[in-house]
Write a structure and sequence with these properties.
By secondary structure, the protein is of the alpha/beta class. It is globular. α1 crosses α2 and α3 (126-134) packs across α5. The chain has helices at residues 63-81, 97-116, 126-134, 141-151, 161-176, 182-196; strands at residues 5-6, 22-28, 33-42, 46-56, 85-89, 120-124. A hairpin with a 4-residue loop joins β2 (22-28) and β3 (33-42). The protein contains 6 helices and 6 strands; from the N terminus they run ββββαβαβαααα. It has one domain: Nucleotidyltransferase, domain 5. The longest helix has 20 residues, at 97-116.
């Protein structure tokens, strides 16, 4: 497991009177690499980046041992960060059956661990995540990564991609949950989409 990248800002502005913040852990499943990202969310539509990173398993390990490693590391992360909710990428479509089987196995381990901690778990497709984060369901990965960084008030996008994808899943759940004020959510999505939507005739500008 890579060392988590933490938010060291020490900001006290995240807590709002009259609203209870809760912690969401996003999980991007895989066998070789599992991405995770933790955000704290306060209605109405206020986010704070907590930490992110990856669980990486050696290719020399057997499938069973790799899954065992994912399980042990994920349990350690949940114990450390104490999330209220897990947001996991759903298996939607894979062209390669060799890819979908390991991902499905890793997802099974993730769901089992969540159940052992009695954590509520929600699943979202990549298109749902892109729609909630960037404002359109077929947004390209760099656009989504920039939008995640912008929403979390980060100066740079999170690396590696697996960790950034996991953060997007966490933010997606907050935006799709009923605790988000609808008007605020819509306004923020439109603002991000207008800012981050790439022009087809030119490269995406750096922020």
């Amino acid at each position: 497991m890579t060392e988590p990248t933490f938010n060291n800002s020490g900001s006290d502005n995240f807590y709002c009177s009259g609203s209870r913040p809760f912690t969401i852990m996003g999980i991007d499943p895989g066998t070789a690499t599992v991405g995770y990202g933790i955000v704290q969310f306060t209605p109405r539509d206020q986010f704070e980046y907590i930490a992110s990173g990856t669980i990486q398993t050696p290719s020399t390990m057997s499938a069973g041992k790799r899954l065992g490693m994912i399980r042990a590391d994920l349990m350690e992360l949940i114990t450390l960060f104490k999330p209220d909710i897990l947001s996991v990428e759903a298996i939607f479509f894979f062209k390669n059956a060799k890819t979908v089987v390991p991902v499905a196995q890793a997802r099974g381990i993730i769901l089992e661990v969540a159940a052992s901690f009695d954590l509520a778990t929600f699943e979202y497709t990549p298109m749902q995540v892109k729609l909630q984060i960037a404002g359109f369901g077929r947004a390209e990965k760099p656009v989504v990564q920039q939008a995640v960084a912008r929403l979390l008030n980060l100066k740079e996008i999170i690396r590696p991609d697996d960790a950034s994808d996991a953060l997007a899943l966490a933010v997606c759940h907050a935006r799709m949950s009923h605790v988000v004020d609808t008007s605020m959510k819509t306004a923020t999505v439109i603002k991000v989409a207008e800012t981050m939507r790439p022009k087809r005739h030119r490269a995406l500008k750096k922020t």
